[in-house]
């Protein structure tokens, strides 16, 4: 039976047992789709990645990302963590890493300190895309909040993404801590909005000066709460820039506090020829390694 090695890493943190957990299979050739999904469900992290040879030899690798229930077209912390693991294994080279994913190519720049790789910055694969806004009362119900807890001065609850769609909603600082997902309310929205493709992940945030505090609930995907959601944070950065006259935007986000897994993300957004683009960066910490016979 073939033996596959995997590594786990905590992403968007400087300390072990903080940030968002990730499992990486750096040599996944020979693992079929069903087994990849089963492994992701068994490991029970927000996501697990499987690294394969690229289809285009000018790219670094093909990276497949699975959450507990589905394959993901793109996600933030899996790209940051996968690049970090490949660097630890001496497979990252010296330039930009290029990962082939369902949503497109993800460019990754390693972050180094004193010659050692400590994290990575990724550019989201697509420009900002938005869908029709969702009713504030229905989104408030999903979060077990009152409509008055939502902050609607800048934008309504809006599905937006730069590779994968999240519903972005601002809330008051007190409501951020009090929020909890209501599964029945989630199911009602998905039943009436076919454009969401059966997926509803809500990213709620509160402004904290120039920066933000955030949480993300995706119970329909098996993630009751996520400690750090890079793909949602880059979507918000792109959306925020679209609502301003600025050419660029840069701020920091903290997520996962309520879960005891505080995460720190650095966000940037800029105007490009094809629309508004965004990136996210952060630190990583190695946790453990293991093997599995398949």
Short description:
With 294 residues, the chain is of the alpha+beta class.
Topology overview:
Layout (H helix, E strand, L loop, with lengths): L2 E9 L8 E6 L7 H11 L3 E6 L8 E6 L4 E2 L3 H13 L8 E5 L2 E10 L2 E8 L5 E2 L5 H7 L7 E2 L6 E4 L3 E7 L1 H6 L4 H10 L9 E7 L2 E7 L12 H13 L5 E8 L7 E10 L2 E19 L1
Parallel strand pairs: 2-3, 4-6, 12-13, 14-15
Antiparallel strand pairs: 1-2, 1-17, 3-4, 4-5, 6-7, 7-8, 8-17, 9-11, 10-12, 11-12, 13-14, 15-16, 16-17
Helix pairs in contact: 3-5
Tally of DSSP helical segments: 6
The number of E-state strands comes to: 17
- What is the CATH topology classification name of the largest domain? Diaminopimelate Epimerase, Chain A, domain 1
CATH architectural label of the largest domain: Roll
**How would you characterize the largest beta sheet?**
8 strands, mixed, barrel
Which descriptors apply to this entry?
single chain; 294 residues; alpha+beta; Diaminopimelate Epimerase, Chain A, domain 1; 2 domains; 6 helices
Question: Could you walk me through the main structural features you see in this protein, from its secondary elements to its overall organization?
Answer:
The chain has six helices and 17 strands. The mean pLDDT is 97. By secondary structure, the chain is of the alpha+beta class. The longest helix has 13 residues, at 76-88. It is globular. Helix 3 (136-142) runs antiparallel to helix 5 (183-192). The protein folds into two domains: 3-124 and 282-293, Roll (Diaminopimelate Epimerase, Chain A, domain 1); 129-278, Roll (Diaminopimelate Epimerase, Chain A, domain 1).
